[in-house]
């Protein structure tokens, strides 16, 4: 996903370090592995089309662990936290009203819209250092126009056939979509580290929408419930905050 702006200073003391630490180490390991994989891919003639100011993917829905959301939430100032919370409410409305998964994704991209952490002037991510896993492992083997909302829907039948042929002959794709599959798979250890750390610290795992969990990560009632391993209490707190819906919040 979109490239960096200058790094944002982060708080030095993280009260959730036993949960966020493994994720941060996972991010660092992912960056090393992805750089090595990409270098080999490019030596063999592969192309990565992601670059500075490219952000067409920043209106996709993003699923995260609460461990990742805590890292992002800890870096936000009040204005960004308010913008993320407003975005979370639009996500919730979409979850309540979309009749199926396909419509949910389409409406997210077109109506919920771009991530409020995106700087629309530069196309950079204002929280690049603490962006979630999905923003780190999404890379395109074809030009960004194929990442835009509605790209597939707007293609003619001939263009779709051409896209399929192009994807099928492009190394690094899964043969169906133009994203670079091995760079997504390389992030699986980050998901696993987040799951283990949450289970060990809280006795439960919390997953869901990025903006919803980033908002709830700053909610003391919600975090108190999670900290007690009390899934029902955390759910009640999320409900009181107006952000509880099974499609965007999982407590297990
Ligand atoms: S090429 Fe696609 S995946 Fe890569 S940064 Fe641009 S919009 Fe995102
Ligand atoms: S956090 Fe938001 S702005 Fe940053 S890369 Fe992810 S979707 Fe884009």
Automatic annotation (TrEMBL):
Name of the protein in its database record: Fe-S-cluster containining protein
Organism whose genome encodes this protein: Deinococcus budaensis
């Amino acid at each position: 996903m979109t490239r960096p702006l200058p790094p944002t200073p982060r708080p030095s003391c993280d009260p959730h370090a036993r949960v966020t630490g493994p994720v941060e180490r996972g991010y660092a390991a992912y960056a090393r592995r992805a750089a090595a994989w990409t270098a080999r891919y490019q030596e063999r003639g592969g192309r990565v089309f992601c670059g500075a100011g490219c952000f067409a993917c920043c209106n996709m829905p993003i699923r995260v662990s609460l461990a990742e959301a805590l890292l992002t939430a800890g870096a936000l100032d009040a204005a960004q936290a308010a913008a993320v919370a407003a975005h979370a409410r639009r996500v919730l409305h979409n979850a309540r009203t979309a009749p199926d998964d396909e419509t949910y994704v389409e409406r997210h991209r077109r109506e919920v819209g771009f991530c409020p952490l995106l700087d629309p002037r530069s196309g950079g991510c204002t929280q690049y250092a603490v962006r979630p896993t999905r923003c780190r492992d999404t890379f395109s083997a074809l030009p960004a126009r194929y990442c835009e909302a509605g790209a597939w829907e707007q293609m003619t039948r001939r263009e779709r056939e051409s896209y399929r042929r192009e994807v099928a002959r492009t190394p690094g794709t899964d043969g169906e979509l133009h994203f670079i599959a091995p760079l997504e798979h390389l992030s699986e250890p980050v998901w696993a580290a987040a799951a283990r750390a949450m289970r060990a610290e809280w006795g439960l795992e919390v997953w869901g929408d990025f903006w919803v969990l980033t908002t709830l990560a700053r909610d003391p009632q919600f975090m108190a419930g999670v900290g007690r391993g009390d899934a029902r209490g955390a759910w009640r707190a999320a409900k009181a905050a107006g952000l509880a819906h099974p499609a965007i919040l999982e407590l297990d």
